[in-house]
């Protein structure tokens, strides 16, 4: 009799649990590390805003397969040491299943040993190629690799018959990686590097380097960095009366760069940018066109400003996480495995196809070469 009562109680408990509403399922905890304040706030603020907006939207609709999302965001202030401390807190105290960010290459490289040791998937919003090359088991990233941006620039230069280049790169993780990729790609494309100058992340004047470049007789200049440095370079180029084309990296693909440099100074600057920068100029049949329009409209409605490429990196991360959840990811290891299986995922930064040997998943199609014309982006021709 006791056995029958015990079995009945067990069946009753199972029935009660299965009848619980979707909201009773424990939420998936997502951690985020963004440079919301500090020098890299132009990256971290739109990343945080985007992720918070998307989590709120999904939870309002009942979550993913009935499971809500619980987001914990920490501000790293762009500091690598702080990023490691906060990542530890996310893993040990908050028990997150996955981490989005950090915003910069230096912070990401500092956090990688920790997430690899703790086996927590990290989807970085930074561009440095060394983040995912060589491949690390638990590390992914959403911005296209540096070498793709470099190749896009050199292909454009070759079409314009520009055969020599002067490099001006920042001495942080992003700039050092970019410099390496630019020099390697220039060699592959048969373009001569006739000047190779650098500047510090906190430098406020680059006229000394640009004066040397002016005497190098280069056909073009490539500046590689994130604001405010590239904006200062742009102003200095104008002040020195340098007439050769100025190319920037995808690290300044936001209206903030134009604002910092000034419309007149930035006029004619060319760079590789994600399609979000020119979404309103895309053909309707472009697979990214609708998603980009919808993202920009939602962001503008929520925050009263246009969406940026950098916020798009967080959007990509969110879409990857929800895609992994739709395919049954509950634990961190399941999340990692499903992230690696992503194929033809249309998002803001491009169409992602991951694999065991590719934890970025983007190719040359992720970028369009754009030109600044009257304070706005145009497709460069």
Detailed description of the structure:
The chain has 381 residues and is α/β, with parallel strands linked by helices. It has two domains: 196 residues, Rossmann fold (3-Layer(aba) Sandwich), CATH 3.40.50.2300; 147 residues, Rossmann fold (3-Layer(aba) Sandwich). The chain has 13 helices and 14 strands. α2 runs parallel beside α12, α3 runs parallel beside α4 and α5 crosses α6. The radius of gyration is 23 Å and the shape is globular.
Properties at a glance:
381 residues; alpha/beta; Rossmann fold; 5-stranded parallel beta sheet; 4-stranded parallel beta sheet; 44% helix; 17% strand
CATH topology call of the largest domain: Rossmann fold
Q: What is the CA-atom radius of gyration, in angstroms?
A: 23 Å
Overall geometric form = globular
Order of helices and strands: HEHEHEHEEHEHEHEHEHHEHHHEEEE
CATH architecture title of the largest domain: 3-Layer(aba) Sandwich
Overall pLDDT metric? 93
How many runs of DSSP E, i.e. beta strands?
A: 14
Helix content: 40-55%
Strand content: 15-25%
Question: What structural category characterises the helix and strand content?
Answer: alpha/beta
- Just give the CATH class of the largest domain: Alpha Beta
Q: Gap between N and C termini, in Å? A: 84 Å
Strand order of the largest sheet: 2-1-3-4-5
Number of helices: 13
Q: What are the segments in which pLDDT stays under 50 over at least 5 consecutive residues? A: 16-23
The protein's oligomeric status is: single chain
Output the CATH homologous superfamily of the largest domain. Response regulator
Number of domains: 2
């Amino acid at each position: 009799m006791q056995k029958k009562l015990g079995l009945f109680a067990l069946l009753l408990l199972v029935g009660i649990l299965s009848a619980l509403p979707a909201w009773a399922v424990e939420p998936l905890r997502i951690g985020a590390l963004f440079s919301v304040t500090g020098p890299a706030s132009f990256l971290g603020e739109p990343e945080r805003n985007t992720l918070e907006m998307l989590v709120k939207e999904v939870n309002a609709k009942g979550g993913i397969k009935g499971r809500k999302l619980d987001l914990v965001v920490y501000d790293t202030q762009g500091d690598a040491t702080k990023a490691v401390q906060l990542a530890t807190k996310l893993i040990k105290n908050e028990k997150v299943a996955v981490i989005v960010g950090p915003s910069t290459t230096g912070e990401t490289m500092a956090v990688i040993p920790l997430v690899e040791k703790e086996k927590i998937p990290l989807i970085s919003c930074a561009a440095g190629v060394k983040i995912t090359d060589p491949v690390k088991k638990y590390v992914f990233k959403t911005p296209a690799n540096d070498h793709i941006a470099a190749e896009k620039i050199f292909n454009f230069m070759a079409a314009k018959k520009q055969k020599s280049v002067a490099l001006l790169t920042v001495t942080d993780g992003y700039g050092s990686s970019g410099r390496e990729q630019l020099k390697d790609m220039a060699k592959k494309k048969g373009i001569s590097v006739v000047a190779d100058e650098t500047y510090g992340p906190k430098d406020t004047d680059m006229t000394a380097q640009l004066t040397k470049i002016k005497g190098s007789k280069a056909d073009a200049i490539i500046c590689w960095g994130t604001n405010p440095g590239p904006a200062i370079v742009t102003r200095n180029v104008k002040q020195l009366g340098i007439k050769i084309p100025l190319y920037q990296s995808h690290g300044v693909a936001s209206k903030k760069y134009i604002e910092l440099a000034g419309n007149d100074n930035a006029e004619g600057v060319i760079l590789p940018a994600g399609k979000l920068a020119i979404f309103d100029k895309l053909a309707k049949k472009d697979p990214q066109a609708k998603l980009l329009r919808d993202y920009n409209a939602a962001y503008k409605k929520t925050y009263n400003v246009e969406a940026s490429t950098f916020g798009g990196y967080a959007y990509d991360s969110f879409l990857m996480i929800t895609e992994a959840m739709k395919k049954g990811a509950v634990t961190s290891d399941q999340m990692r495995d499903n992230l690696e299986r992503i194929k033809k995922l249309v998002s803001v930064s491009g169409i992602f196809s991951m694999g065991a040997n590719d934890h970025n998943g983007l190719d040359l199609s992720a970028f369009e070469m754009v030109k600044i014309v009257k304070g706005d982006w145009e497709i460069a021709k």
